[in-house]
Design brief:
The chain has 268 residues and is of the alpha/beta class. It has 9 helices and 5 strands. Strands 3-2-4-1-5 form a 5-stranded parallel β-sheet, with helices on both faces. Helix 2 packs across helix 4. The chain is globular. The N and C termini lie far apart (60 Å).
């Protein structure tokens, strides 16, 4: 009898393992297109890209991308803006949908790409989900005798070589966006902005990890802001943020039972 019970338990475990071939998902999931971008205008974040947001040729190229993304037919658009400015963003978006020729004094990916995607797709709702929290991403320069400084330096030396081999300034708008949404590139952004800091510490401390946790916390709050937005099974969500935020969101959206993460490469 004892042997029979053990065999039944092992068989049950095996069957359950076979069924869990991917994350557990609800029957009706909300489809999400989570797209990373380089910042096309001013940003309080550390990373910037050379891009003339007033050049009509650049605007036209961005709008070509927007036309492709609009095929996703989003009903809701989420952007890297703090929720406190949602009324302002909504008002500006409505003005743009009524007059797409309007000019913005300091346009960013919000006005150039998100607004145009929404206009073409007929999206009625747009929200900011950003949360501002600073951290010292240069803490490695501030600590003497850090345990993992050689690993840290070696990694960034490799990245410097790659940057010289594939200069971003030679890329088109589409190529930059394709790079921003490459899974390996997003993993690299997680390393650069957070995970490599865990190598920076002194004996008995975790100075780098303490700083990295602030960036994780910022993105977790942003993800919480997403989860506070009322959505139903018929909604289709387009998220546009700096690619490092996109990398964080990919992890959580993929594991979430509520959301279905759509492959961005289908639209780029």
């Amino acid at each position: 009898m004892k042997t029979t019970l053990v065999l039944m338990m092992l068989l049950s475990i095996k069957l359950q393992a076979q069924e869990l071939k991917g994350p557990v998902k609800f029957k009706n999931t909300v489809k999400v297109l989570n797209m990373g971008t380089f910042h096309m205008g001013y940003t309080p974040d550390a990373s910037t890209t050379e891009f003339d947001e007033h050049d009509q040729r650049n605007i036209d190229k961005v709008h070509e991308v927007a036309e492709a993304i609009a095929e996703f037919r989003p009903t809701v658009i989420l952007v890297e803006q703090v929720p406190e400015k949602n009324a302002e963003v909504q008002e500006s978006y409505q003005e743009y949908t009524q007059n797409p020729e309007m000019k913005f004094k300091n346009p960013s990916e919000l006005e150039l790409l998100a607004f145009e995607v929404g206009r073409l797709a007929g999206s009625e709702r747009i929200y900011g989900i950003d949360y501002r929290e600073g951290y010292n991403y240069r803490i490695a320069e501030k600590i003497n005798n850090s345990y993992g400084i050689e690993t840290y330096k070696k990694y960034f030396a490799v990245l410097d070589s790659l940057q010289k081999e594939y200069p971003e300034e030679d890329m088109s708008v589409l190529e930059k966006l394709q790079m921003s949404n490459n899974p390996n590139y997003k993993d690299m952004l997680l390393n650069i902005n957070a995970d490599m800091l865990t190598h920076i510490s002194t004996e008995g401390n975790a100075e780098g990890a303490d700083e990295a946790s602030k960036l994780y916390h910022r993105n977790l709050v942003m993800y919480s802001n997403l989860n506070q937005i009322e959505l139903n099974k018929d909604d289709r969500v387009f998220i546009l943020m700096g690619a490092s935020h996109t990398a964080f969101f990919d992890m959580w959206l993929e594991r979430s039972p509520k959301y279905e993460l759509i492959d961005t490469s289908k639209y780029l």
